[in-house]
Every structure is written in C-alpha cells, then in structure tokens.
Specification:
alpha+beta, five-stranded antiparallel β-sheet, 5 strands, about 25% helix, globular
Length: about 70
C-alpha cells in the first residue's frame, strides 16, 4: 500500500510516491504516473497550486493509468 499525503487543493485529494511512480488521488479517482523523478514529485508536493503543477509539468509528460481500486 502506498503512503498517500493529503493535500489542500480543489481537485487533488492526496499524493503518493514510490519507486519512480507518482500516485495522485483526484476527487474523480486515483491515477498513477510512471517514471516520474523524485524531484518532480517533491516539487508537486510543495507547489502552491497542485492542479496547476499537474497540468503544467505532469499531465501529458508521463504515462498515466487510471487505477481501479475495486479489484
């Protein structure tokens, strides 16, 4: 199980990181982003706007998979 850190954001609920994989829980579901450097994940955690950081630096830059948590 990944350790998720709750964050203050209008859309991002929590962020987790393990073994070059970024996990982002949105209000709409959980996603994983592959091959994300640790420095990028740390910048996301420290960003004033998590949603803006996701849009500017993560989405479209890393392979993304929606996770089905009801398996």
């Amino acid at each position: 199980m990944i350790n998720m850190t709750p964050v203050e954001s209008s859309n991002v609920v929590a962020i987790g990181y393990d073994d070059n994989t970024l996990y982002v829980k949105y209000s709409s579901g959980m996603y994983k982003y592959d091959n994300v450097p640790k420095e990028v994940a740390e910048k996301l955690l420290n960003a004033d706007s998590k949603g803006r950081f996701m849009n500017d630096y993560i989405k479209g830059s890393y392979n993304c998979t929606k996770l089905n948590l009801h398996q």
